[in-house]
Design goal:
With 405 residues, this protein is α/β, with parallel strands linked by helices. It has 3 domains: 105 residues, Nucleotidyltransferase, domain 5 (2-Layer Sandwich), CATH 3.30.420.40; 91 residues; 132 residues, no CATH class. It is built from 15 helices and 7 strands. The strands form 2 sheets. A 5-stranded mixed sheet has the order 3-2-1-4-5. Strand 6 and strand 7 form a beta hairpin. Helix 2 crosses helix 3 and helix 6 packs antiparallel against helix 8. The chain is globular, with a radius of gyration of 39 Å. The protein starts with 15 loop residues before the first helix and ends with a helix.
Length: 405
């Protein structure tokens, strides 16, 4: 039989020479085929030329980031690219013009410029923004924690670290207040310093005369000078020394009264401060200090954030499944604003003779958790209420809605 139906016939027998040495494959050159013509496939390995990139391929735009380590005389500057490679490092005078001239070659592709919050930060921030630079003021505590990982602490390394923070976006921005707010805050600061120096001199006189058996702990401020002169009149040396201290004390008190009067005038002419002073316990100092510290009523998304901003909310430490304990208030933010809010809350709970739901709420906390915790809670609530009044343009209400604002 020729073969089984449906199976191909057997191949012819090969010769001895063909079985020992298989035929070699010849490398053939493939002729270019015309368009539309089918090209037969064979076993020849054909290498195609590498694909060339398109002539109009879109490239990634180059971006630069800069870090400024500001000192009183010079500022260390570092510029890095998007990959973190250092492009240039150097120093310039701590002036807006000098810093802008240093960064001028990268101006068009400079995405962010970061500098740490400090004494010169508001002035440099405004000056660099006027020169069309995208400047960011960084929170000091966060920057210190990041730069602590460096082995060596130098201005050059700090500027390099700030530039890397700008590149990665891992930073916290600080709100730079308006120039008018800084002017009013300077009034508050100088008034506070004069009062503290006045009290320092008075306490120094009280303490220095104890070694001679002169006790002034029961003498008030109004009769303090007359009492001291009467007690040291028998000793010419003590009389002369105390006279110099008393004259300095009197001069400080006169200047303090001038600044306090000016502060009261500013607060009485400001409509926002007038609404704040409608709250029991809130006076011109608290109202003006809070207004200048917040500066912009739109900077917070929710009113409850204001309490945490001034460090009036409790801390928390949690780690794993066994450690989770709350702490005291964080005491972050402006400590002077926190102090005047605490004084206002204490005045509301102890000196205010009227009634309001906020006072009733604070007295309930005092009965349950103690007086100090109640004062801290009312201080936080005062900050929330004052911010909501400013944002919504409303007045203080003595009903239950005031305590839940």
């Amino acid at each position: 039989m020729a073969g089984v139906i449906g199976r191909p016939s057997e191949a012819p027998t090969r010769s001895a020479s063909s079985s020992t040495s298989p035929p070699k494959k010849k490398r053939l050159l493939k002729a270019p085929a015309a368009d539309g013509v089918a090209v037969p496939h064979n076993d020849v390995v054909q290498r195609e030329p590498p694909a060339r990139p398109a002539r109009h391929q879109r490239r990634t735009a180059v971006e630069y980031f800069a870090g400024l380590d500001v000192a009183m005389k010079d500022t260390a500057i570092c510029v890095v690219d998007a990959e973190g490679k250092t492009i240039i490092e150097g120093k310039a005078l701590s002036e807006p013009d000098a810093i802008a001239d240093f960064l001028h070659p990268f101006r068009d592709k400079l995405r962010r410029v970061g500098h740490e919050a400090g004494a010169l930060s508001p002035w440099l921030q405004r000056g660099l923004i006027e020169r069309d630079l995208k400047v960011v003021c960084l929170e000091t505590i966060h920057v210190r924690s990041v730069l602590k990982a460096q082995r060596n602490k130098t201005d050059k390394n700090d500027a390099r670290g700030l530039a890397q923070m700008m590149r990665t976006g891992w930073f916290r921005e600080v709100h730079v207040k308006s120039e008018e707010s800084y002017r009013l805050r300077l009034l508050l600061t100088h008034r506070r310093n004069l009062k503290r120096k006045f009290l320092d001199l008075e306490n120094a006189i009280r303490h220095s005369l104890k070694v001679f058996g002169i006790k002034l702990h029961l003498t008030g401020r109004a009769h303090f000078e007359d009492a001291v002169r009467e007690q040291v009149a028998h000793d010419p040396l003590l009389a002369g020394l105390c006279d110099a201290m008393l004259r300095a004390r009197a001069a400080l008190w006169v200047e303090y009264l001038k600044l306090h009067k000016l502060l009261v005038q500013f607060a009485s002419r400001d409509p926002v401060c007038l609404r704040f002073m409608g709250i029991p316990g809130v006076g011109p100092v608290t109202a003006l200090a809070f207004k200048t510290a917040v500066d912009d009523p739109t900077r917070f998304k929710r009113a409850r954030i204001v309490g945490a901003h001034f460090g009036l909310t409790p801390k928390r430490y949690q780690s794993g499944d066994t450690v989770d304990r709350p702490g005291c208030i964080s005491k972050r933010g402006d400590k002077e604003v926190r102090a005047v809010l605490y004084e206002a809350a204490k005045s509301l709970l102890t000196r205010y003779k009227g009634w309001c739901s906020l006072k009733a709420w604070g007295l309930q906390i005092a009965h349950r958790s103690g007086h100090k915790k109640a004062v801290a809670a009312v201080a936080r609530k005062l900050a929330v209420i004052m911010y909501a009044m400013w944002r919504d343009d409303t007045a203080f209400q003595f009903s239950n809605s005031a305590a839940t604002a």
